[in-house]
Amino acid sequence: MRETSDEPDRLPIAPHPRETLALVGHAAQERAFLDALRGGRMHHAWLLGGPQGVGKATFAYRAARFMLAAGDPLRRAAGSDSLAMPESDPATRRVIARSHPDLHLLRRSLKPDGKSYTSNIPVDAARRVIDRFGASAAEGGCASVSSTPPRTWTGRPPMRC
Length: 161
Fold this sequence. Notes:
Elements: H1 27-38, H2 56-68, H3 73-78, H4 90-96, E1 103-106, E2 121-122, H5 123-132, E3 144-147, E4 153-154
Parallel strand pairs: 1-3, 2-4
């Protein structure tokens, strides 16, 4: 585990949420996500809120791994009570390695001084990611985006009609 981070969404003394397979204290949220998926009520976006360190990014990566894994996520959801995916799953390994072609991240960027991160995500960056959803998923399944909270957006929030 690294003590310092080259990524804005990593806490200084913890593994990156992308690398964290366990999720503690969010069983109800996982059930809500799975219920929405099983019931055909999956929203196009989920807003995760809460204080730093409670597991928002870990939940988002966990949901992304579940949706991006090979096979039909609806079938996987039918027989599952959590979003857990094994570390041996190819999609899980690619998400951890930052190499999955269908996972798009919106994160704060490094400031020009190279010492800290911006406090905002430009809306234009969100729009560029949204434009990618017009194409087919690289691996034929779902496409997923993980983002920092919308309070960090600058300009108008991205809209897609």
